Amino acid sequence: MMHPSRQALVEDIRDDEDEEMGIDLASVPIDHDYLMPSGAAGVPSEKASAILSQFSRKRQAAKIAVPTDDGRVRARLRELGEPITLFGEGPADRRDRLRELLMVQAEAVDEVDGDGDMDMGEGEEGQQEAEEEFYTEGIPELLYTRREIARYSLPRAKERLAFQKLESTIPLRTHIKHRKAIKEKLQGFDLYGSQIAADRPVSIARFAPNGSIIAAGNWGGSIRLLDVPNLEQKKLLRGHKDRVGGISWYPGATLPSSDVSSSTVNLASGGGEGNVNLWSLESDTPISTLSGHSGRVVRTEFHPSGRFLASASYDTTWRLWDINTTTELLLQEGHSREVYTVAFNSDGALLASGGLDSIGRIWDLRTGRMVMYLDSHIAPIYALEWGVDGYRVLSGSGDGFVKCWDVRAVRELASIGAHKGGVTDVRWFQGTDGPASGVGVHKDEKGDVVPKKAGTFFVSCGFDKNVNIFSADDWALCKTLSGHSGNVLSADVTTDGKWIVSSGHDRTVKLWARDDGEGV
C-alpha cells in the first residue's frame, strides 16, 4: 500500500509525462469531412483553380510528341505560321514553344482525345524520336577522312607512349630539381614591349611556329602581322566584315625546316560574319574562304596533319573542313548553346569543344563518338588546350577557374582558381622537346634521360586584366604579369619559351620576356 499523499504525487508525475509524450493515436477522433472551406489554405479559390488548370495543361503538353531534330521543329513552326526562331532562343526553347503552340491549337479545335494524347501528324515515328538518339548522315568523304585521321594518329600515339615509357625511368628527385629550375626562370618574366594594334579591342594574338611573327586579329575585322620583338606591322590582312575571333597558324608554317611555302596556306581566321578565311604570307587578301556557318566563328584550329581545319561557331555547331578541297566534311551538333572553342590533341585523334552551355565535350574523330564530358564548370567555357602528353586537357571558364581533365581516367584532375574574373584564354607550353616534336628523349653525358621542358607550365589570361603563369605539376602560380588597362582577351607563348604575348580590350598587343632574353 502507498500512503495517500505519496500516491497523489506519483499520479501528478505520470500526468506530466503523458503530456510530454503527446497524444495517443488511438484517442484521435476520426473526421470524415474532407471538404476544405475556400481560403482555408490561404489561396483564393479562383487562384487555386488557375494553378490546377496550369498544372493540367503542362501534363497534357508533356504528352505531345515533338521532333528532336531542330530542322523539323523549325519546319513545323513555319507550317503553323509562327517565327522559326526568337531572339536568344535555343533548340530546347524552340521545342518547348512548339509544344505549347500545339497544346493551344489542340484546345482550340478540341483535338485532344480522352487520354490527353495528341497526334502531331507524325504517328509512332514521332514518339520514337522523342525517346531515341538521332544521327546526322555524313557525306562519303567523311568516312575516308576518319580513316586518314586513324592512319595519322595511331603511329604518333605509339611514339608518344614509347617516349613516356622512357620518361617513367627518370627519378622523382630529378623531376623536382628540373621543375624548380623552370619555376625560377618563369618568375623572371616582365613587360618587354607594347603596341597599339587596332582601333578596336584586339580579340586574339597568336605566335607563328618560328616565334618571329604575331598575328593579331581585332573587332574591326582586320589582322595585323607584327614582327618580334619590335612589334612593327609587317602586313595588314583584310577579309572579314566583322570581328575576328580565331586565328590558327598552319603546322610548320614559317619554319625553315618545313616545306610550307609562303604562297600557300599559312594561317586561318574566323570572323563574325560566319566565314573562315585562309591566308598566305604574300597576299593581303584571303586565298580561299570557307562558308557554311550561320553564326559568328569564334575559334579556328588546324589539325596536326595540316590537312583539316576545325571551326567553332555561335550557330551551336563545330565543323571540320578539308583544306585541300575547301569542302565541309562534318557538321557536329551536340552543344545546346553557342560553341566557343575547339582544340585537337597532339595525336590528332581527339578534339575538345566547349561553349556557352558550360559543358565541354571530347570527340573521337576516328569514330565520331563523344568519349567524355567536361561538366563541372558553372559558367561558359572560353578556352581549351591539350597537353603534350596527349591525354590531359585544360579548360578555362567564365567562373574564373582553369580545370585539368584526364581523358584516360575520365575524371577531373585539378581545379585552379586562376583569375578573379572570367578566364578568356589558356595556352599550354608545347616546347620543342615533347613527344610530338619527333626529336626523341634527351640524355645527359651519363646516358640518363633528361626531363623535357614541354608541358611544364601554362599561361592564362582573364577579365582581371592579368596574365598568369602556372606550373603544370603542382598548379602553383609562378608569376602574374600586370600591364593591361582592360580585360585581357588572349595570350600565347612561343615554343622556345622565350616570349609571351597578350592582347585585350585596351587595343594593345604586349610582349613579355625575361631580362636576360633567354627562354625557359
Automatic annotation (TrEMBL):
InterPro entries: PRP4-like, PRP4-like_sf, WD40/YVTN_repeat-like_dom_sf, WD40_PAC1, WD40_repeat_CS, WD40_repeat_dom_sf, WD40_rpt. WD repeats lie at residues 290-331, 332-373, 374-415, 481-520. One of its GO terms (cellular component) is U4/U6 x U5 tri-snRNP complex. PROSITE patterns: WD_REPEATS_1 (PS00678), WD_REPEATS_2 (PS50082), WD_REPEATS_REGION (PS50294). One of its GO terms (biological process) is mRNA splicing, via spliceosome. Pfam families: PRP4, WD40. It comes from the Eukaryota. Keywords: Repeat, Ribonucleoprotein, WD repeat. One of its GO terms (molecular function) is U4 snRNA binding. Residues 68-122 form the Pre-mRNA processing factor 4 (PRP4)-like domain. This is U4/U6 small nuclear ribonucleoprotein. It comes from Rhizodiscina lignyota. The lineage of its organism: Eukaryota, Fungi, Dikarya, Ascomycota, Pezizomycotina.
